[in-house]
Task: inverse folding
């Protein structure tokens, strides 16, 4: 599954494309969309939209994973971060892609096994998983890559449930008949 | 000046188009874009984008005024509100329109003369200014209309400065020469 991870931000919007299935992952591309702080916010969002459009058209991800923005995180930057995340969601939806959000703790837990791992531990595990000598840089690109691995490995609770239901062998007809009789349906 | 006011929100995004110059204003159109709470946020933002595109293409405003989102206002809804505001900014920028943000206090002060006016006072003044018997409804549409009047009347500090500079008669040449001599330039 090709996942595009997005670590939203106005100054640096991290992007990381990872091809993976639970237990394995390979890096497709990592980078950032930068917009100058002096530019009007509306023009910065337009630049972020253009960058995301270019990545999605070129790489054709199957799903977009975005870091969930919490108002509690940083009152000074939450509005800008939420606006960048909103533009990422919008571009994904325009291409018919489903958007999933993961919290930083979920990303850390998926990659290191602990939701409290520090940045260095996450970086080391990302390198090991992707067979890289050095972590993607800058940090926003690395965070987006970690997010994409997290989604490829964890998926969403709903997706896992669907897979579990699909993988469960159907009971034989005779057993279904017995169960129906017991429930008073036959 | 035709101003499109936007009171951003995921559930109800208020829109109000007003044609005005300081001291007078007339209502062009007021309404809301509604999106269902059960829909995925990315699809809600797509619906808001489509609604804004339609309004801007049809009414061709000269400027877009958006309520400034503060993280401190409501931690539960600030992320969704900021995302909707981000989409409004994006669509405006795409059409080459400048975006200005005003705080609720600025809107109240522009319309009633007091930044602490309550909703009812603002509503009554909006009706009087626009010669309406009843205020636009729902409240989000009325708020967007008030925002548009505020922008048409106040503009931005930068715009007012530009106008003031343009309106100031240039000093006569002889005076400029004297000033230049005084500054040691001639």
Result:
């Amino acid at each position: 599954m090709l996942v595009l991870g997005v670590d939203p931000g106005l100054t640096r919007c991290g992007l990381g494309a990872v091809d993976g299935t639970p237990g394995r992952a390979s890096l497709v591309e990592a980078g950032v969309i930068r917009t100058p702080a002096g530019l009007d916010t509306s023009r910065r969002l337009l630049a972020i939209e253009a960058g995301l459009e270019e990545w999605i058209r070129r790489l054709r991800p199957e799903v977009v994973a975005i870091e969930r923005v919490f108002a509690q995180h940083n009152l000074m930057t939450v509005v800008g971060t939420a606006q960048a995340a909103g533009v990422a969601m919008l571009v994904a939806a325009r291409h018919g892609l489903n958007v999933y959000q993961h919290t930083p703790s979920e990303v850390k837990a998926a990659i290191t096994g602990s939701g409290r791992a520090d940045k260095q531990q996450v970086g080391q595990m990302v390198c090991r998983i992707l067979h890289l000598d050095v972590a993607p840089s800058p940090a926003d690109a690395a965070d987006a890559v970690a997010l994409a691995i997290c989604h490829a490995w964890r998926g969403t609770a709903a997706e896992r449930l669907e897979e579990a239901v699909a993988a469960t062998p159907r009971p034989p007809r005779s057993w279904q008949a017995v169960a129906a009789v017991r429930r008073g349906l036959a």
